[in-house]
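ok so heres the complex, two chains, lmk if somethin looks off
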Amino acid sequence: DTAVSQTPKYLVTQMGNDKSIKCEQNLGHDTMYWYKQDSKKFLKIMFSYNNKELIINETVPNRFSPKSPDKAHLNLHINSLELGDSAVYFCASSHVAANTGELFFGEGSRLTVL
Amino acid sequence: RKEVEQDPGPFNVPEGATVAFNCTYSNSASQSFFWYRQDCRKEPKLLMSVYSSGNEDGRFTAQLNRASQYISLLIRDSKLSDSATYLCVVTANQAGTALIFGKGTTLSVSS
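and the predicted structre for the whole thing:
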């Protein structure tokens, strides 16, 4: 069974559209994240949720809205997509209390905005 | 100043070589340090944690110098399968809920 799964893996869409990426983890972790990896391969944190509560919200346009219906899910909705949103979006989870620093990443969702 | 800075790559080495990667971080309050590995078009995965006293895992040795805010990774006897991007990672807060990634250093091992 995949530990952190995100869908879709690939997404090609036009500028101005709204899209969502879903993420689920079956590891029982208490914290989930969204990271963005741009064309220069820089992996940057966007959001972090601990037990469904938003704890980190980096400087991200408010077109990006995370939603965590429960501890095992963290979805990302993006409104009015722009060319610069093209990137690979990684969902991740961790058990913060364990303090191992290990993030378990999903396989990534490659978003291309045309 | 970037939060986590790494050696620019790529590093191209022959099999069997020893290669070292360096990393500096700007947040003196960072508590935990790690090296992650990312294969091409794959997700990052934890390679090893970095402890104050230095630690070794097989052919991999990690060192930490808190005073200089410097982290290193040494790979001995490089294998073809070591070809990947190595990401230096530090915690940005005490709770450990934010990991800050460096841009990574790409290693290419050839036969």
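quick notes: Residues 71 and 87 of chain B are 11 Å apart (CA to CA). thats all i got rn
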